[in-house]
Amino acid sequence: MDRLKGKRALITGGTTGIGLETARQFLAEGARVAITGKNPETLATAFHDLNGDALVLESDAADVAAQKTLAEHLGEAFGTLDILVVNAGIVEMLPLGQWDEVSFDLSFGINFKGPFFLIQELLPFFSSTASIVLIGSVNARIGMPNTSVYGATKAALASLARTLSGELVSQGIRVNAIIPGPTTTPLDGKLGLPEAKLKSVAASLESQIPQQQFGDPLEIAKAVVFLASDEAPFTMGSELLIDGGLVL
Ligand SMILES: NC(=O)c1ccc[n+]([C@@H]2O[C@H](COP(=O)([O-])OP(=O)(O)OC[C@H]3O[C@@H](n4cnc5c(N)ncnc54)[C@H](OP(=O)(O)O)[C@@H]3O)[C@@H](O)[C@H]2O)c1
User: Is the minimum distance from the CB of 86 to ligand 1 under 6 angstroms?
Assistant: First the structure.
């Protein structure tokens, strides 16, 4: 398969879950791939999982100054960039009364502010037929308790898919968003919940999904391949829902 043959791609947060599966699919479709992450352990395991075929870069998605360094690194390694997947993200679930400024800024830093300045820094490097895919979340659309900040970061990303579509179309850059519903990845394990609580939260979520199950990262990755490929030249500013019917 060579749907991305010759294309050069950056996937932020490509060390686990949706990002790692997207890196696998991109490599299988003939792309040259760079991924980022912050945790040295998952960076190392991803390098091995991808058989050493991807450029694996340590870069903190929340650090605005680091976005410039990352863009310069990409420029040196690839020359131009055809695909950017903004995927790195965290979820912190807290009731309104427990949020403080540090936690608020961390979520917005990783999920929105860092990505915003990464796109800005990458502007000189994008090819004239580039595709940016932003990974949003159904939490921007549903009223799930304790997700006020997470949902807002993802609503901001979805907004960016539309505004930057208008702004960057003259440079040949398409911007789209994918809106996953609950998907089986290591993300839930990072919520800091005890195992029993995690299971009950997952069961409660599953019961609200018409398909009664979580999604598979492979389906998200295949959708990213489509939006990143030359099969979607007229698709811009879109939000592709992949959620088993959760927001119906
Ligand atoms: N799983 C779901 O149910 C679901 C649903 C809707 C949307 N999403 C979105 O999908 C995206 C991928 O999530 P996932 O489910 O695949 O979770 P995941 O397995 O936890 O992946 C998150 C990725 O983001 C990276 N990351 C986190 N903080 C970072 C930072 N400060 N700097 C650089 N990289 C950082 C992680 O790298 P490290 O290992 O280095 O931390 C990892 O590669 C996220 O944006 C998430 O919000 C997920």
Answer: no
∠111-55-92 over CA atoms, to 5°? 20
**For 88-144, how does the pLDDT look when each residue is reduced to its tens digit (9 = 90+)?**
999 999 999 999 999 999 999 999 999 999 999 999 999 999 999 999 999 999 999
Domain residue spans in the chain? Answer: 8-189+217-240
Q: Is 108 known to be catalytic?
A: no
Q: In whole angstroms, what is the distance from residue 192 CA to residue 93 CA?
A: 10
The label of the residue with tokens 């830093």 reads 109
- The CATH superfamily holding the domain 8-189+217-240 is NAD(P)-binding Rossmann-like Domain (3.40.50.720)
Q: Is 15 in the pocket of ligand 1 (CB under 6 A)?
A: yes
C-beta of residue 84 within 8 angstroms of C-beta of residue 133: yes
Residue with tokens 């060579």: 2
Quick one: DSSP state of residue 95? -
Assess whether the C-beta atom of 135 lies below 6 angstroms from ligand 1. Answer: yes
Closest ligand 1 atom to Cα of 43: 40
